[in-house]
Amino acid sequence: MDSCTASLRESLLKFRIQDATVTKNPGGGQQEAEAGEVKASRIGPLYRKSSNSMILSKRLRPQTALRVATVSIRPVLLSHIPQRRLLHQIPQLTHEAIFKKDGISGVLSPAGFDMAWTQYQGLMVHRLNQLTAGTTDENALTKSLLIKHARDANQAALFNHASMAHNNHLFFTCISPTPVPIPQPLLNRINTDFSSLESLRTEFLATASAMFGPGFVWLVKHTPSSSLRTLTTYIAGSPYPGAHYRAQPVDMATTNTGVHGQMTPEEYARSRTMPNSAGPVGHAGSFGLSSKNARMLAPGGVELEPILCVNTWEHVWLRDWGVDGKRKFLEAWWDKINWDVVDANAGHLGQTGKPQAKNRSRWQLSRS
Question: What is the pLDDT of residue 151?
Fold first, then answer.
């Protein structure tokens, strides 16, 4: 066996040296030959460590194959990883740079703003991208998504994330780092509908403070008359008439079961199983998503546009204000309302209370 090993080693050395000599070029023949000798000298000791030629050859081959795979295969695999652009993204706030650096003075600390906007809105956007990837909804605006899926129980997760992202965006869009005077036409409208700005403030903050659970309080414009009203939605409920089935306007902890808290559990269960004039909730029926009447208002729906809201979810105010600080947070928030944005959302109300044409809020057009 020793003589066989020695003979194999000698043959391999000759082969390596001969191979290097044959492949030399006229300008560097001597250098190639020397390189071949170096290679042979490095390989030789491996064979001197064992008396079994079969084992020695197996030790050499896998290492060579691994080196080749590392160099040639890995770049090819990495180059074919699909790079998908995230279609839903966190919108850029007008005063975001100031809010990130200094927070919202008197309302939220920089860390509080980071949690309520950067982190939370980022989570909503991330989940939206997961839920809509590869579907016809991946390029839709959040408002379109929440209206489209408000009546489809199978898409409850998609509705919740789209509606929450949309609501939270409006909340932060209507905040200014410094107080903003209210435009006179908007003030006139408020005086007409609420008797005074102070009356609106009292009603708005009292409603938000009394909410037992997370949600939003809204100032909305009744589109046909341009009058202003307040309303409440819980959790991720939406004020849009197209999403009326998911308005969630009542606190279910303090009211009877039912859409408006007026039905007993038995009546509510019966209403969910018996046909009604509105048709079944879902895709089928005379008012289903697949019917020609799908764009019509739901029963009880009112044409309106939200122009201002406050977010009462605890993750917004609890960090900076503590468990008993909700009322103080609301009062501080009211002082930082950007009334110019509210007026723009209302369509720049004129002296007659009618919105001027072609003046729509830009926040609604952002993809969040």
Answer: 84
- Judge whether 222 and 192 are in contact, CB under 8 Å: no
Q: 213: alpha, beta or left, given left = phi > 0 and alpha = psi -120 to 50?
A: left
What does the pLDDT read at residue 293? 45
Residue 250's closest CA among 260, 239, 264?
260
Which residue is it, tokens 């879902």? 282
Which residues in the chain come in under a pLDDT of 50?
Answer: 19-85, 253, 257-261, 265, 268-269, 272-295, 351-367
Give the pLDDT score at 220. 96
278 CB burial (10 A radius; 0-12, 13-18, 19+): middle
Tokens of 346: 């209302």
Position of tokens 């290679």?
A: 39
148/141 Cα distance (integer angstroms):
11
Report the C-alpha gap between 149 and 134 in whole angstroms.
17
pLDDT of residue 82: 41
Helix (H, G, I), strand (E, B) or coil at 191: helix
Residue 280: per-residue pLDDT: 39
Q: Is 131 exposed, middle or buried (0-12, 13-18, 19+ CB in 10 A)?
A: buried
Distances (CA, A) of 62 to 66, 69, 76, 328: 6, 11, 21, 71
Contact 108, 336 (CB under 8 A): no
CA pair distance 176, 332, nearest whole angstrom:
12
Paired strand residues for 228: 221
In order of 112, 121, 122, 330, the CA distances from 316 in angstroms are 7, 11, 14, 11
The partner residues of 108 in beta bridges, in order of sequence, read 104
The contacts found for 170-173 with CB under 8 angstroms, 24 or more apart, are 170/306, 170/308, 170/309, 170/345, 170/363, 171/216, 171/309, 171/310, 171/311, 172/93, 172/116, 172/117, 173/93, 173/94, 173/338, 173/341, 173/363
Pairing status of strand 227-234 against strand 304-311: unpaired
Distances (CA, A) of 142 to 117, 171, 209, 282, 316: 16, 15, 27, 20, 21
